Amino acid sequence: MTESDWLKLLRVLHIGSFTLLIGGEAFSYFLLRPALRRIPPPQAAVIEQRVGNLSFYLFGACLVLLFVSGILRIYLVYDGLGILGDIAFYQSRYGRAITIMYSFWFLAFLTTVFLGFYLRPRVLRRLRPEANPGAAELGALRATRDRAALWIYRVRLAILIMAVAAAVGGAVASLGGLF
What we know:
By secondary structure, this protein is mainly α.
């Protein structure tokens, strides 16, 4: 394969990963969230656990693929990664757009790690599907679930916004850069 073929393949991988990330986050926030509110808490907990596990792995893989494909594209275009250490690169229009894209990618990555390793385990530990609480415990359990779910959805919305901002940076970079 030629270098041009590799660049095309990496671009397809980059855009495909981004599309899967944005589409999945939009599905999770705008379609799944309202549907789970209409389901009783024990069943919603099972669905949240299964869908949450799959989406965490899928979105994490998309973020890793975005990073790797982006770095490899820079490596191929600039014959190495030395350009990333050059201040003149960041002063160019293209460099500023790439900086915006990678900054928002990094924030989305940190937020995904926070969601996957801090928020979700706390919610799932409190909402075991096999738990059989009494009436008083069920009310407290539901309130805890609602508070935790609200934070999860806020974080998901933040990830979606950051991913779209990174995409804007990438689109502007492909058009030659930013101001």
